[in-house]
Amino acid sequence: MGIIESFVSILFVLFFIVLACIVFTNAIEHLGEELNLSEGAVGSVLAAVGTALPETIVPLVAIIGGYIAGTGIEQSKEIGIGAILGAPFLLGTLAFFIIGFSVLIFTKSGRRKQEMPVNSVIMFRDLHYFVIAYTISILSSFILYKPIKPFIAIVLLVIYGVYVVLTIRTASKEPEGGHEELDALYLTKYIKLPQKLVRPGILVQLALALLGIIFLAHIFVENLKAVSDFFHINPLILSLIITPIATELPEKFNSVIWIRAKKDTLAMGNVTGAMVFQSCIPTAVGILLTPWVLSMQALVNVTIVYLSVITVYISIVINKGVIKPKALLLGGFFYLIYVIYVIFEMFKG
Q1: What is the C-alpha separation between 259 and 108, in angstroms, rounded?
Q2: pLDDT of 339 above 70
Q3: If you placed Cys at 335, which of 58, 69, 93, 138 could pair as Cys (CB 3.0 to 4.6 Å)?
Q4: Is 226 left (phi over 0), alpha (psi -120 to 50) or beta?
Q5: What is the pTM of this model?
């Protein structure tokens, strides 16, 4: 009965994560409007950082938990590194695929066109900062002189700080794809708020939705662990692949919601902005708290991320600010290649 309950729980949690993401999306759009930010800034900074919290917490809990418990420290560090690398991998492959697939589905239903016009300035900035920070993080794994590691971690934090400032500074109020009136804040549908309490109301809804996402993601991960233990799945798959699937769900579902609304810069910025965050903040934690020595499986993972990102980058350049869904769908192909590689390595070992 235990394994059946875990499967049922996973399905229920997935459903409620989708609902929490819808509430979160509604609040984040209203907050962006209140702060007079562009859609690109909302997607790349506010939504990306907010929804990136669950997958940031997972490696922190794994690493710090190992130190506090005083047992299984090495295993905890490996799980932490896997979760840290797994996040940008999932975003740069499976999240891209889900966005591309969503575009095709909504195109067939007549809700939108297949072309994805995006703000190329925002997209290029996100991808440039991601590649720079990610490359610094990966190269630091080959540095054997430990005293320099804290300096590298500080550099990554500075890079992210500069990225956030530039993203907000260059924000414009020009809407993409025509202006659409925002749906009413969900909280105000049940509670009538005076004008002076509108912004606090937005923050309350945002906090509740975010706490819900984090809590539900935690339950999802715990149930996935139960399934993994039952079927005796290698923990490496859990840390590199399964755990990020759970913690990255907010980015994926929020982007689908925005794709449906034809807000392509928001949808892509939510993912690419989270990739910048993941290449800076969690990796800085990994560099500081773990040996940060990457195995061959981790390096293959990194290579696949680069291939997927380059594919999307080239699509934007060639099509002059328009992303073709085919370029995003290739992310699913890259993801599948790595899963096959990991399974092959498991049986080989």
Answers
A1: 13
A2: yes
A3: 93
A4: alpha
A5: 0.79
